[in-house]
Amino acid sequence: MLSYQVKRTATINKNLDTVKQHLTNFQLWPEWSPWLMMDPDCQFEYKGETHQVGHGYYWSGDLVGAGKMFLLDDSDSLKMSLEFFKPFKSRASVSFILKPFEQKTHVTWVMDAKVPWFLLPFKSFIKNMITLDYERGLKMLKAKLEQGQIHSQLNIIGIKKANSINAIGLRSKCHMNEMPQYMGANIEQLEKYLNKINITPTGKTFNYYLSFDMAKQEFDFYTCIPVMQTSFGKPFEKITIGAGKRFIVEHTGDYQFLGNAWASAHQHCHHHSIKVKRKPLGIETYLNCPRETSPEQLKSQVSLFCK
C-alpha cells in the first residue's frame, strides 16, 4: 500500500556505451538531474571510482534536502541505491534499463519506492510529481548527450508586484506533449484576428494556466495577447487578470525545458513558506519571439499568484 513505481522512457541518439558511461559518472549528474539543477549551491561528496560498482555521492542542499546514491550493478540494467536523509528519511531502488536500437539507445528510468506512512494520503501526488521530474530529467539527459549542452538557465526574481492585465484569449485543453502545436495554432489565430480588426497588442504573448491534471498530464489554459479592447467575437474571449503579488522565475533557453522554471518556482515557494494559489496555476510570458530568436536565447517568465 505504501509502495509505488515510476517508469519513464526516452530514446537517445547515442550508442549504449556512451549513454552508460554518462550515467555511471555521478559527477556529471548535476548538469541534467531535474532536482540538482534547481539548487546550484548544493554540496556534493563523491565516493569510489567512476563507472565502477561502489561509485556514488552524497548531496546536501537547501532546496533538494540531503541523501546519497550509489551504483550497485554496472550491467546494461544499471541498478542504484537511493537514500534520503532530509526533508524526511526514505529509501528507494533506482535502475536505468538500456537497450540498443540501431545506433540509438532506449533508456528506461525506473524507481521503486515507498512513501512514509505519514505521507500515504499524498502518495498519488508524489508519484505524479516524480513522473514529471523523470520526464524533465530524460529531456535534459537527451539534450546533453546529443547536443553537448542543455539550453536551460534559471533566474529567481522572487516576489514582485504586478499590474492588472487585459487581454484577448483563446482557450485550449490538451496533453502537455501537445502544447507546442496548440500554442502555435492559437497564436496564429489570435494574430490573424487582431490584424483583421486592426488592434495593436499592448504587451507580450502569454499562457494563462487554469489547471493541470497531473494524472492525465493535461492542461486547461488560455493563450493570450494583451490589448486595450474588451469585446471580441467568438471563439475569442476577454481575459482580465487582477493586480497583485507574484513569484517570478525567469527562464533562458529552449521552451521544452520550461518545466524547470515551474518546478523551481514551486520548490522555492515551498522552501521559503510562500503561499501561492493552486488555481489558477499561473502565467507563462514569452519575452521574445521564437520566430526571430534562436532556442538558446529564448526568454520566458513563469509567474505564480501569491495568496
The CATH topology of the largest domain corresponds to Multidrug-efflux Transporter 1 Regulator Bmrr, Chain A
Task: Note the total helix count.
Answer: 4
What percent of residues adopt helix (DSSP H or I)?
A: 10-25%
Assembly state? single chain
CATH superfamily descriptor of the largest domain:
Regulatory factor, effector binding domain
Tell me the name of the CATH class of the largest domain: Alpha Beta
CATH architecture descriptor of the largest domain: Alpha-Beta Barrel
Strands in their spatial order, largest beta sheet: 8-13-15-14-10-11-9-12
Integer average pLDDT: 94
Shape field? globular
Keywords:
single chain, 307 residues, alpha+beta, Alpha-D-Glucose-1,6-Bisphosphate, Chain A, domain 4, Multidrug-efflux Transporter 1 Regulator Bmrr, Chain A, 2 domains, 8-stranded antiparallel sheet, 4 helices, 15 strands, 21% helix, 42% strand, globular
